[in-house]
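Ligand-bound model needed. zinc ion.
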Amino acid sequence: MFPIYHHNPAHLSHDTEVLEYDGPRIRVASSPFYPGGGGQPADRGTATVGGRSTEIAEIGIGHSPWLTLAEDLGAEREVTLDVDPDFRRLMSELHTATHILNALVFRDFDGALVTGAQLAGDGTARLDFDLPGADNDRLRALEGAIAEVRRQALPVRALYVDRAEAEAEPGLIRSKSVAPPPTEDGMIRVIEIAGLDRQACGGTHVTDTGAIRPVRVLKVENKGRQNRRIRIGLMS
Ligand SMILES: [Zn+2]
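Prediction:
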């Protein structure tokens, strides 16, 4: 069973049942919230029970996760869960922007791999690459190449490939630290940007590269002998 944030990411307001109640924690039958992982922070949102709403403080993993509420809303059976649309949107744009950067570095810098990625709630992200000897000015110039990919409005879609096939395709599993675990039937979720990139990922994304607001390369730094850290930010 695929999570709602994968098979129907536009579904942001969700009525469901409370299966278990433990003070400010509730276990729900199903949840629209991205729980965090792969460098992408968890969704923000609210729970509403009997006309009272409170923030979600913590989102558990799994199809029927535990949610920790900021305020105890009591032991009701029905709950409405609302994903914060602006934050989801920001993270989906930023996450897709990191794939573009990632793809351009892989393409233009001899298949260089990501060694770490972290998105921040303020619309910035950092990516670390295994890039000994790369010219930092060339890396900064990727800002123009990212703008070109945005202008092309390339379709972005999710598909599932067999694990063995995924492992055989060079660059598909771009980073061990950000690749999602396989599904129960051994399939790997892949995000494809038409004509540019395919990589294993479990996060949320926009549906075409034209839906991302302008991206700036904020900083390129050396991290040790091997690694370069590139910080990007979405313009508000
Ligand atoms: Zn992704």
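The pocket of zinc ion is lined by residues 95, 99, 191, 201, 203, 205 (CB under 6 Å).
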